[in-house]
Amino acid sequence: MSSATAMAGQETKAIVADLATISGCTNDCKYTLVIHDDGSAAGNAGAIFSESIRLLQFPPGTVDTKTLLFLLGEIGDVSRIPAKPCPETFTSGEPTTRMSYAGKTSGDLQHIEKGGDPELLRASEELARFLQTTVNHLKL
C-alpha cells in the first residue's frame, strides 16, 4: 500500500492554538476561558465559595477571533491597558475581567482609567466591550 493510499483513509486534524485567556469574577462566580484561534473555547466556571466547577466547551466559530485579533493588534501588550488593578471580588463586591495574551496580563478591564494615550484608551474600551459581550453571549 502506498503512503498516499494510507493517508487517503486517515482524517487529519488541524492544530488549534491558544489565542488568549479571559478570567473573571462576578459577585458569586469565577471563570477562566481559553480562546483558541479557530474561535473555539474551553475553560471552567464555578461559585467562589464552592468546590463545584462546571467545565465549559464551545465549538469553533463561537468567539469572533477576527475582531479579537484586530483589537489585540491595536493594543499590542495588554499589560499597557490603563486599568486599575483587580480587586478581590468577594471582598469588594465588584466584578472583574482580565485578559492574558502573548505572555502579558491586563489589569481589570471593567475599570479602565481615563487619560493617557487616546488611541490606547479607545482600543482598550473596545476590547472591554467585546469581552463583556462575549462573556454574556457564552452565559458565563
Reconstruct the topology from this structure:
Blueprint: H1 3-8, E1 18-25, E2 29-36, E3 41-47, E4 53-58, H2 65-75, H3 89-92, E5 96-101, E6 104-105, H4 118-137
Antiparallel strand pairs: 1-2, 1-5, 2-3, 3-4, 5-6
Describe this protein's structure.
This protein is 29% helix and 26% strand. It has 140 residues and is an alpha+beta fold. The protein has one domain (17-137): Mago nashi protein. Mean pLDDT is 85; it is low at 1-7.
Mean pLDDT reading: 85
| Net shape | globular
Secondary-structure class: alpha+beta
Distance between the termini: 50 Å
CATH architecture: 2-Layer Sandwich
Strand order of the largest sheet: 4-3-2-1-5-6
Number of domains: 1
The counted number of beta strands is: 6
Report the uncertain regions: 1-7
What name does CATH use for the topology? Mago nashi protein
Helix share, percent = 25-40%
List SSEs in N-to-C order. Answer: HEEEEHHEEH
Rg computed from alpha carbons, rounded to a whole number of angstroms = 18 Å
Instruction: Identify the CATH class.
Output: Alpha Beta
Please count the helical segments: 4
Strand content: 25-35%
Q: Tell me about the largest β-sheet.
A: 6 strands, antiparallel
Keyword list:
about 140 residues; alpha+beta; Mago nashi protein; 6-stranded antiparallel β-sheet; about 30% helix; globular
How do you describe this structure in short?
By secondary structure, the chain is of the alpha+beta class. Helices cover 29% and strands 26% of the residues.
